[in-house]
Amino acid sequence: MKVGVLGAGTMGAGIAQVAAQNGHQVVLVDLGQDVLDRANAGLKKVLDRLIEKGKMDQNGADEVAGRIHYSTQISSFEGCGLVIEAIVENLKVKHEVFSAIEKVVDENCIIASNTSSLSIASIGSALKNANRVVGIHFFNPAPLMPLVEIIPAVQTSVETLSKSVELIKSWGKITVICKDTPGFIVNRVARPFYGEALRIYEEGIADFATIDWAMTELGGFRMGPFTLMDYIGNDVNYTVTETVFAAFYYDPRFKPSFTQKRHSEAGYLGRKSGRGYYNYSEGAEMPQPNKDEKLGTEILNRILVMLINEAVDAVFLNVASKEDVDLAMTNGVNYPKGLLKWAVEIGLENVLKKLESLFEEYGEDRYRPSPLLKQMVATNKTFY
């Protein structure tokens, strides 16, 4: 099958690499020739590193590189069985390109979006034959991250969904199926990891370094929330939060933070700008955390119960199965444990007690426990 990818940025180029490494002829399309040139040069560097590490020989690298064809024309998608769009998160632009793609591919071609936060149903409305639309959401970097969220829209046919799952699994990826709701699984459930950490900072309970220390050293997370936001980019992370907040009709659980907004406005975008929550300029010293275990445990528990509550609510609202929610968080953002399994270890009654305590203290809807959590505690049920 010939695979098309629209958008030769980091994500699009990574998806093209994955498809090519799995034997597909790939056409990578971007309107900017300079973007295509950078993608080509970047792929060469990646393949050279794989050769150096002994994960690929020169012949294999040449074959992968030879399968990717670069073009500035959408008409190059002719003959593709799958086209994945990985461009700017702008619905109007996506409508324009989806309509253009449909005009050059045949009726059996699946047209997918790699969007992380926009409605698949809305994107697919630009198509005359919308039963071919589906969300196929990779995580960055696409060649390394094992998880792919597959999101059927209300228009998506059973055949389109099953073909998409089968194909992505054949690429060695772990797939989870989730409802077409804002943020899907990962970008929805993970919001408190950032939002509650920012809130703890804003209340003056702890600084960035201490919160990061608590989550990594005591919680086992690979990166603390502020280190991770600096890695992702404050502008990108803030935009996703703002999008999810608006899409959920301004539910207080997803309320953005002024701290993050001001950092973004100031150009403190993280590693890519040299300054974020931390200073990455040459010679700058990283701040040292306050390694008070009692404080650190309180920070960890507060953020963790918020994450668990969001995971429970995703199951309550049939966004995904309990298994897929846990798979998504461990394989999409490298959480040390599935949140629902973690909840069982802690005890659902203890999670509920902490949330009720926060709700009573602050009187804010962001701390309201999921109805499913309350139901399960009341009936002495558990997830596993």
Brief synopsis:
By secondary structure, the chain is an alpha/beta fold. The protein has helices spanning 10-21, 33-52, 58-67, 91-104, 120-124, 158-170, 186-189, 191-202, 208-218, 225-232, 234-247, 258-265, 293-316, 322-332, 339-346, 348-362, 371-378, and strands at 2-6, 25-29, 68-71, 82-85, 110-113, 133-138, 147-151, 174-177. An eight-stranded mixed sheet has the order 3-2-1-4-5-6-7-8, sandwiched between helices.
Major beta-sheet overview = 8 strands, mixed
- Helix % is 40-55%
Alpha carbon gap, first and last residue: 40 Å
Q: Unreliable segments (pLDDT under 50, ≥5 consecutive)? A: none
What's the level 1 CATH class of the largest domain?
Mainly Alpha
Number of helices: 17
Shape: globular
Order of helices and strands: EHEHHEEHEHEEHEHHHHHHHHHHH
How large is the share of residues in beta strands?
A: 5-15%
- The averaged pLDDT comes out at 96
Oligomer: single chain
The CATH architecture designation of the largest domain is: Orthogonal Bundle
State the CATH topology of the largest domain: N-(1-d-carboxylethyl)-l-norvaline Dehydrogenase, domain 2
Number of strands: 8
Tally of separate domains:
2
- In spatial order, strands of the major sheet run 3-2-1-4-5-6-7-8
Structural class: alpha/beta
What does this structure look like?
The protein has 384 residues and is an alpha/beta fold. It folds into 2 domains: 2-177, NAD(P)-binding Rossmann-like Domain (Rossmann fold, 3-Layer(aba) Sandwich); 185-384, N-(1-d-carboxylethyl)-l-norvaline Dehydrogenase, domain 2 (Orthogonal Bundle). 51% of the residues lie in helices and 10% in strands. An 8-stranded mixed sheet has the order 3-2-1-4-5-6-7-8, with helices on both faces. The radius of gyration is 22 Å and the shape is globular. 48% of the residues are buried.
